């Protein structure tokens, strides 16, 4: 059977590795529009901040493809799908036949139709990141347009390079999709302490040589302007092929489109009305699609999303229905703005349906598990927000954490799998990552994995 994958980003590269793990003989060809090997887009904010080099965020290098008999074709944009003859056609005229086709075309940056927008740099790809870093070396001050997740990460990264940064956002508070108003204000105050000035409720009207002109005529001075105005699924290829497209390419529980020989996964796919923009759902979808493609049975039932902000000196996790108020749910809230701390639980029918944790907190692991499993919330609400005040066991402790607890959400790695991996000889984080992929997604589980590995080594008297 001939499998063709269009898109070699985080979803496409994971699909290829999942297929190859199940079937060593299937003929696999993957086309990537970007010229280099696949990389972890989630960690681009670390690259921008100078915490990681571009080569450190690669997912699969050319040697992996050669060793696993996978033909990878970088820098090759697929421009047409011929469903009648079951071929894909690239921009340079190559025609590749398929028996099964997987669309993993991802998303593209939204560039608003502003006069002078060409003077700005979007923040989406590794090439964008490298352009921003090069420009930052010459710039005196920067402006970031868009105060969602990517905009906040971009602003913090540029401030970490010593640039004064102004973050411009149309909505009334930052990250309004994930945060309520007070959390957005606390986040803005935290960023202010790190060198980012936040302007909310403002509209960019033009990008000029000296900065961003606002709708009210004010000029926000900047010689580097970064656009973080959201993303949209790349669905043109599917639409032109006659597949059903709404916000994304419509798929069923097997990730099939309305053409049974064509699948779609990741940010370009729409499952039961939802388009997921995070890495964990894309990787869950890749595993399901790979199982089905190689003859197994699997179903994708949707994902429960936990958004983690990856910015130095800013700890933030948000999950579920964070905007519900007391009229619709039980809300437990704590705010200490002077310390940049905000914690909120949203509980309905005895279950945790939403949470915001801003500022350093040892409650993230416990609350994420409660949210994932939908289990009953303990009666001690204060103990959930402040585990140290409670006599109840803290799920985040390696000693008390059950083996079924999920440590790495991006790759669905439990403490039990980490323990088994350690017992098989992986005595450090690198070994655990190689065996389980834990820490290779958003990276926020690294401390937990290190803690579990260190605890196991200590228990067995193994030198670390």
Give a verbal description of the structure:
With 464 residues, the protein is an alpha/beta fold. Helices cover 27% and strands 26% of the residues. Strands 3-2-1-7-19 form a five-stranded parallel beta sheet. The protein has a five-stranded parallel beta sheet with strand order 9-16-10-11-12. The longest helix is centred in the middle third of the chain and has 15 residues.
Integer-rounded radius of gyration: 23 Å
Distance between the termini: 46 Å
Sheet having the most strands: 5 strands, parallel
Q: Counting H and I runs of at least 4 residues, what is the number of helices? A: 13
Write the layout of secondary structure elements.
Blueprint: E1 2-6, H1 10-22, E2 27-32, H2 44-49, H3 62-67, E3 70-74, E4 78-82, E5 87-90, E6 95-97, E7 100-103, E8 107-109, E9 121-122, H4 126-136, E10 142-145, H5 149-160, E11 165-169, H6 181-192, E12 196-200, E13 204-208, E14 211-214, E15 219-221, E16 224-227, E17 231-233, H7 236-240, E18 249-251, E19 262-264, E20 269-271, H8 279-293, E21 306-311, E22 314-320, E23 330-336, E24 341-348, E25 351-358, H9 364-373, H10 381-385, E26 406-408, E27 413-414, H11 415-423, H12 429-436, H13 446-460
Parallel strand pairs: 1-2, 1-7, 2-3, 7-19, 9-16, 10-11, 10-16, 11-12, 18-20
Antiparallel strand pairs: 4-5, 5-6, 8-17, 13-14, 14-15, 21-22, 22-25, 23-24, 24-25, 26-27
């Amino acid at each position: 059977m001939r499998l063709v994958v269009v898109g070699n980003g985080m979803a496409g590269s994971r699909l290829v590795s999942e297929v190859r793990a199940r079937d060593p003989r299937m003929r696999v060809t993957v086309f990537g529009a970007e010229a280099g090997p696949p990389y972890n887009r989630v960690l681009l904010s670390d690259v921008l901040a100078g915490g990681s080099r571009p080569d450190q965020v690669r997912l699969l290098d050319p040697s992996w493809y050669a060793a696993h008999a996978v033909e990878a074709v970088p820098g090759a944009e697929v421009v047409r799908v011929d469903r009648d003859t079951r071929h894909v056609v690239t921009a340079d005229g190559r025609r590749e036949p398929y028996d099964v086709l997987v669309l993993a075309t991802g998303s593209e940056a939204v560039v608003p139709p502003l006069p002078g927008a060409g003077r700005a740099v979007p923040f989406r790809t590794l090439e964008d990141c490298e352009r921003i870093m090069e420009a930052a070396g010459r710039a005196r001050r920067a402006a970031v347009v868009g105060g969602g997740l990517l905009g906040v990460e971009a602003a913090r990264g540029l401030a970490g390079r010593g640039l004064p940064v102004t973050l411009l956002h149309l909505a009334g508070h930052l990250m309004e999709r994930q945060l309520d108003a007070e959390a957005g204000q606390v986040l803005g105050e935290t960023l202010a302490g790190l060198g980012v000035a936040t302007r909310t409720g403002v509209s960019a009207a033009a990008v000029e040589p000296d900065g961003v002109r606002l709708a009210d005529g004010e000029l926000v001075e900047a010689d580097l302007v970064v656009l973080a105005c959201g993303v949209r699924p790349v669905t043109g290829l599917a639409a032109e092929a006659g597949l059903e497209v709404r916000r994304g390419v419509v798929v069923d529980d097997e990730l099939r489109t309305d053409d049974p020989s064509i699948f779609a996964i990741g940010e370009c796919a729409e499952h039961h009305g939802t388009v997921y923009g995070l890495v964990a759902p894309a990787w869950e979808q890749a595993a399901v699609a790979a199982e089905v493609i190689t003859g197994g049975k699997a179903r994708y039932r949707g994902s429960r999303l936990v958004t983690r902000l990856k910015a130095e000196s800013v700890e933030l996790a948000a999950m579920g229905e964070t905007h519900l108020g007391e009229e619709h749910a039980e809300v437990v809230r704590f705010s200490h703005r002077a310390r940049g701390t905000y914690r909120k639980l949203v509980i309905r029918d005895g279950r945790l349906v939403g949470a915001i944790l801003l500022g350093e907190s040892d409650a993230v692991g416990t609350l994420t598990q409660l949210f994932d499993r939908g289990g009953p919330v303990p009666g001690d609400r204060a103990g959930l927000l402040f585990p140290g005040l409670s006599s109840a066991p803290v799920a985040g402790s390696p000693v008390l954490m059950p083996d079924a607890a999920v440590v790495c959400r991006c790759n669905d790695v439990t403490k039990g799998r980490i323990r088994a991996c350690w017992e098989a000889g992986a005595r450090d984080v690198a070994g655990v990552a190689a065996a389980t992929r834990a820490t290779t997604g958003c990276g926020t589980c690294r401390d937990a994995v290190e803690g579990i590995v260190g605890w196991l080594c200590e228990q067995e008297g193994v030198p670390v």
